[in-house]
Amino acid sequence: MSDVAGPGFDNVPPLVNFKLMLCEEGRGDAKEFDRQAKANMADPNTLLGTFTQAALEFRNGKKAEGKKTVADAAKRFPDRSDRAPWIDTMIEFGYDPR
Questions:
Q1: pLDDT tens-digit profile of 34-60?
Q2: Which of 26, 49, 57, 63 is the most exposed place for a label (fewest CB within 10 A)?
Q3: Would 26 be classed as within a structural domain?
Q4: Which residue has the higher pLDDT, 4 or 42?
């Protein structure tokens, strides 16, 4: 069976959920952000769960913890191409995890 969607396509739907959650924060809807964050962290061992945790830490003024969560993600998800769109998204929304 061919990979019609291309490599990494499985990461797109969770990344969209992450972006939608961050949009809620940008719109000023903290309650909806929190609701989506809770759903996104149902499995903390995924890119979605990990980067949602980092976004929460940044949002709550815990920049050092957020950076540590992103650094730990590099160990758990060693392929840079898997992490890059998540990091780019965080930067787009004002969280600089570098």
A1: 999 999 999 999 999 999 999 999 999
A2: 26
A3: yes
A4: 42
At 70-92, the pLDDT tens digits run: 999 999 999 999 999 999 999 99
The total number of structural domains that make up the chain: 1
Range of the domain at 37: 11-92
Q: Name every residue whose Cβ is closer than 8 Å to that of residue 53 and which is 6 or more positions away in sequence.
A: 41, 44, 69
Residue 6 maps to a domain: no
Residue 72 has a CB neighbour count (10 Å cut-off) of 13
Structural domain contains residue 33 = yes
Specify if 98 maps to a domain. no
Nearest 10 degrees: Cα torsion 32, 13, 10, 92:
-80
